[in-house]
Amino acid sequence: MSFQNPVFIPGPTNMPEEIRKACDMATIDHRSPVFATILNPCLDNVRKVLKSERAQVFIYPSTGTGGWETALTNTLSPGDTVLAARNGMFSHRWIDMCQRHGLDVQIVETPWGEGLPADRYEEILAADTNHKIKVVLATHNETATGVKSDIAAVRRALDAAGHPALLFVDGVSSIGSMDFRFDEWGVDVAVTGSQKGFMLPAGLAILGFSEKAMAATAQAKLPRTFFDVRDMEKGYAANGFPYTPPVGLMNGLKLASDMLLDEGLENVFARHHRIAEGVRRAASAWGLELCAASPDLYSDTVSAIRTPEGFNATDIVTHAASQYGVAFGVGLGEVAGKVFRIGHLGSLTDVMMLSGLATAEMCMADLGLDITLGSGVAAAQEFYRSNPARAALKAA
Ligand SMILES: *Cc1c(COP(=O)(O)O)cnc(C)c1O
């Protein structure tokens, strides 16, 4: 591993130097008014990043996984029914967490590489006339397969069925990188973490709750203490936490969210799309296919690239680390050994991405795959030259 090279894993992502510095601060008294000057801008900025006017934002010392748990335990009771599709490792893990909490999960098995089946959701919701289903889970961006699902379509499915279930969205690898519309999509709980689109170290779970989700907290019987949003809400009302907050990380979040909003969310999304498109052009030049089944599903934050039958894709990742000091993502679960992943989210420029593509080419050539050095890089270069970055400097 070299600390000079960028990483190309789908989280944790590369940290801009000024964000690292913002996290590294002297001890403050978190009960002093200074903490409010960090907390309140974080809450306001995160709400803007979620594209929400009213969402109640919560920030926990945790990770995305703790955010899942915050969503479930604050709104549900043992035995409640949850509807979820399993189309990759992350949707699988959220389902597993539901089951371990004693929830009854109605699982729609979905091929890995496909998006969330909004049509199936609609049929199931329409058939649930007694409204047993309390929550619908939706993984916006399945990081294991590089598949982006259509959350607006899931909302339409709920509305078409006239079903009152809450809509929970895992936006861990999309929020702050790809378009996310909390209010417009009628999201009830959105979950993310600090180490992906927010370009921070791991350590924060970041959530938005709708009024309807807040109302559900009063009846919810699943045990929770550390993640109880009612305690956190009381803490915020007094400009504090119910316990000691991770001040440095939150100071970093304040800056990171300022940077995203200063660049402009639409510019941030356009930058991710451009960089991702260069990666896709490269994969196509290599003659390799993406795990995502069709272009409408292509993720702008991670590409899972299939390698030829009989070749162990994980070898590329191992070789890149040992030979070139570069990190790519391995295939997980069902697609382990079949794909390697290139993460392209967070603080990234064309030039950084080209170095990652060049490294992937060296690895594939070293390992005997039939790859012409420079072929993928050239395809990405052509794309980047004809679609110049507008906000490249700010992204650095
Ligand atoms: C990374 C990720 C998670 C897990 O987040 P942690 O911060 O590692 O707990 C959950 N869902 C998705 C889609 C992710 O990409």
Question: Describe it for me?
Answer:
This protein has 396 residues and is of the alpha/beta class. It has 2 domains: 246 residues, Type I PLP-dependent aspartate aminotransferase-like (Major domain) (Aspartate Aminotransferase, domain 2, 3-Layer(aba) Sandwich); 123 residues, Alpha-Beta Complex (Aspartate Aminotransferase, domain 1), CATH 3.90.1150.10. Helices cover 41% and strands 14% of the residues. The chain contains 14 helices and 12 strands. β2, α4 and β3 form a beta-alpha-beta unit. It is globular and about 60 Å long. The mean pLDDT is 97. Pyridoxal-5'-phosphate binds next to α3.
Structural topology:
Layout: H1 17-23, H2 33-49, E1 56-61, H3 64-73, E2 81-86, H4 89-100, E3 104-109, H5 118-127, E4 133-139, E5 141-142, E6 147-148, H6 151-160, E7 166-170, E8 189-193, E9 204-209, H7 211-216, H8 229-237, H9 247-263, H10 265-285, E10 302-306, H11 314-324, E11 329-330, E12 339-343, H12 350-366, H13 375-386, H14 392-395
Parallel strand pairs: 2-3, 2-4, 4-7, 7-8
Antiparallel strand pairs: 1-9, 5-6, 8-9, 10-12, 11-12
Helix pairs in contact: 1-9, 2-9, 5-6, 9-10, 10-13, 11-12, 12-13
This protein binds pyridoxal-5'-phosphate.
Pyridoxal-5'-phosphate binds at residues 11, 63-65, 90, 139, 141, 143, 170, 172-173, 193, 202.
